[in-house]
Amino acid sequence: MAFDAERLLRDAGVTPATIGVVAGVPTVGLSHDQIEIIEAADAGTVKTGIRDLPVAAVKRLHGGTTVASTALLAHRAGIGVFATGGLGGVHRGASSTFDESADLVALSSIPVLVVSAGVKSILDVPATLERLETLGVIVLGYRTTRFPGFYVRDSGCVVDTVDSPQEAAAVARARDALALRSAVLIANPVAVDKQVDPALHDRVLADAEREASDAGVRGKGLTPFLLDTCTAGQGAPRSTRTLRCIWGMSRLLRRSRQPSSLHPDGRRSPPAPERPVDGAQYVHRTQACALHDAQRPPDPLSM
Which of 16, 143, 189, 215 is the right S-S partner for 153, CB 3.0 to 4.6 Å? Predict the structure, then answer.
C-alpha cells in the first residue's frame, strides 16, 4: 500500500516522505528497500507510538508508526502536512476502561496539518470529537459538514468545513500566527462510490457488537474484535479508503505548500529541505530522534 500511495503523490507532482522505524532508527523518507523490510511478513514489525520509540531504538526493532509518532517525527523534520488512513480515538466503553488512542493527546501538542479519512466507525466517534474539542484540536471536514467514519462518508456527527486546500492551509497559518500548539485535522471522506453501503455497515457493526457481547469480549480486546469482524463482514478493502485520503493530501501539498509550524515552546520548526525528499536521501538522524551509531548503545545498567 505504501508504494501505491507514493505513486499517487508523485503523479500529483509531490515527492513523498514515508515515515517508519528501521532497526530502531526513526526514518523520515523511507527508501524502497526499507519499506519492503518493514512490510515483510517475517520482519517482526511492531506498532510504534511515541512512547515506543525509545524501546524500539534500544531493541533495534522495525516499526510502523502511529498517527502520534508520525506527527512527532514529521514535525521534527520540518514537514507540516501528512496523510493517514483512520485516526485513533475514544474506544467504545472507554467510560469504564479509559481506553483511548494516544493520537488524540499527541495532536493537542504537535502543530501539524493531518489529512485523514476520519475515525473508524467501530470507535466512539461522538466521544472522540468531544475529546478533540477539549484538547483544542481543530477539526474540519473537506467540502463536507459531516464527519466521515473511514468506511462511510457520514458518521452522524457535524463539523465545520473548508472548501479548498488553500483555505485549509490558511487555517494552519492562522493557527501558527496565534502560536497555538495543536494540530489541524482535515477529514477527507471516501468517495460516494467507494464507501461501504451505510445500511450494510450499520448491520454488520450491530452484529459484531452482539457477537462481542455474547463472547464476553470487552476492554482493550473489543476494538480489534470489532475491526476484524466488520472488515470481514463488509469486504471493505482498507487500501482504497487510505489512498483516497492520501490523494487529498497531495492536493494540499501541491497547491498550498507547507504551512509554517511552531514547537510547543515557541521555537520555529527546522525548515524543510529545498531539495526533493526521496527515499533514504532524507533521513533526519539528528532532528528526528535517531539514537544509534554503528554500535549497539551501551547497557545503562552496566555504567
Answer: 189
Report the DSSP pairing between strands 19-22 and 25-28. antiparallel
Residue 288 φ/ψ, nearest 5 degrees: -110, 40
AA letter at 11: D
Q: Which domain holds residue 263?
A: 81-270
Question: What residues have CB less than 8 Å from 234, skipping those under 6 apart?
Answer: 151, 196, 200, 201, 204
Q: How far apart are CA 126 and CA 168, in angstroms?
A: 23
Question: For the stretch 273-282, what's the b/e string if a residue is b when 16 or more beta carbons lie within 10 angstroms of its beta carbon?
Answer: eeeebebeeb
Residue 119 and residue 171 share a domain: yes
Q: In this structure, are 147 and 30 located in the same domain? A: no
241 lies in the same domain as 115: yes
Which helix (H) or strand (E) is 185 found in, with range? strand 184-187
Single pTM value for the model: 0.78
Distance CA 158, CA 65 (A): 29
The CATH number that applies at residue 116 is 3.40.1790.10
